[in-house]
Write a structure and sequence with these properties.
9 helices, alpha/beta, 39% helix, EC 2.5.1.43, Nicotianamine synthase, S-adenosyl-L-methionine, two-stranded antiparallel ribbon, 322 residues, Rossmann fold, SAM-dependent_MTases_sf
Length: 322
């Protein structure tokens, strides 16, 4: 690491030490200040930093920090979902009180654009979101702004999270009819996974490499051939906040593109499709009918309009649009 990178890592590790000494990770002035400092430190794009190659001590701190960030994010979403459900009118009309709502608007638009470019002229009828939490903003943004006829099934292991999320959408006459919540460990869901055109995997489902890969392997085993798997990853210093998903983690999927935002949207987006199972020269389970081949020229054209993106294509050198 050069001096600048070393200083950045030292700053992040110093913030971890302060955060780890907090009595609680629930929203408070101290929690908000420290996590705001952490995010503002990690968010400037620095593609030269590869956190996977750092020393064991830094790697250990990174894993602890990801876990802490996941816990704090859960508390934050629970806090604001509780506030939103207290509104007498439709709570979805007040989503802008959530401090990161605009980030979800941008991320939802990005993910919708990726789907639009890769789906074979079809609008997905059913989408599963794994790890939806008490404030399922991705599903809500997509359902209300982009996919207005699609049915969303949200999966979370936490019953209290699903209870809040269900209450949140219950007053909306449209969304409440197209959004369902399931309290279950996704590792116990098998046959029903075949019914989804698209599966989203939240960034904090599987907070270390081993757990993440186990979930991906489970989805690969049970998703329909040709179905889309969209995952969130992280790049550069942002990988101190969220786990990294690499192409080698997606065995049995064709990775189409990996997008690295360079604005205030933190998560990278990985889009892939499940490959058909071939046995004795025959395709098992039917050919891929939902997803067409990746048309890189179209994707590059769309993303080139957005100057705040980096794009990575397999076999193509990573590019940054500036």
């Amino acid at each position: 690491m050069d001096c600048q990178e070393e200083q950045l890592v030292n700053t992040i590790c110093g913030l971890y030490e302060k955060i780890s000494k907090l009595e609680s990770l629930k929203p408070s002035e101290d929690v908000n200040i420290l996590f705001s400092q952490l995010v503002s430190t990690c968010i400037p794009p620095n593609p030269n930093i590869d956190v996977t190659k750092m020393c064991d001590t830094v790697q250990e701190t990174r894993q602890k920090l990801i876990k802490i960030c996941g816990e704090a994010e859960g508390h934050l979403e629970h806090h604001f979902s509780s506030i939103l459900t207290s509104f007498e009118d439709n709570p979805l009309h007040h989503l802008n009180i959530f401090p990161y709502y605009n980030n979800y608007i941008k991320l939802g638009k990005l993910e919708f654009d990726l789907l639009t470019q890769n789906l074979n002229g079809l609008v997905p009828k059913t989408i599963a979101f794994v790890g939806s939490g008490p404030l399922p903003l991705t599903s809500i943004v997509l359902a209300s702004s982009h996919l207005k006829e699609t049915v969303f099934h949200n999966f979370d292991i936490d019953a209290s999270a699903n209870s809040l999320a269900s209450l949140l959408v219950s007053s909306d006459p449209d969304i409440s009819q197209r959004m369902f919540f399931h309290t279950v460990d996704i590792m116990e869901v098998t046959e029903s996974l075949k019914s989804f055109d698209v599966v989203f995997l939240a960034a904090l489902v599987g907070m270390n490499k081993e757990d993440k890969v186990r979930v991906i392997e489970h989805l690969q085993k049970h998703m329909a051939p040709g179905a889309v798997l969209m995952l969130r990853s992280a790049h550069g210093p942002r990988a101190f906040l969220y786990p990294i998903v690499e192409p080698c983690d997606l065995q049995g999927f064709e990775v189409l593109s990996i997008y690295h935002p360079t604005d205030d949207v933190i998560n990278s987006v990985v889009i892939s499709k499940k490959l058909p199972v071939v046995s004795n020269g025959n395709i098992v389970g039917g050919p891929s009918c939902l997803l067409m081949s990746c048309n890189c020229s179209k994707i590059h054209a769309i993303m080139n309009k957005n100057k705040s993106m980096m794009i990575e294509e397999l076999g193509v050198t990573e590019k940054q649009f500036s």
